[in-house]
Amino acid sequence: MDHVKKASQVSSFAVVGLLFVVAVASLWGVIGWKAVQERQVALVQNGEDARNLVHSLAQHASKTFGGVKIALLGAREHIQSGERYGLPGPNSTNCWPHTPS
Question: pTM of this prediction?
Fold first, then answer.
């Protein structure tokens, strides 16, 4: 009878220990699962942030180069109009306006 009591006592400790191990393993499993989910959400958010930054930089570059293009076209027009009025052009070696001879 004493052996039966010891066996049932050991068996109950084993069941309690097993339930404890399963509970701790389940807790760590849920923590790991949530960590993986949060990492995936962070990666998606960072990807969206990177896309938005690239789009913003592309717009800024486009506007910047558009402004430079307008300025260069204006300078070219100014140089060409100066050639029409007898002013030195871009290929001229004389910096002074031409004087009629």
Answer: 0.50
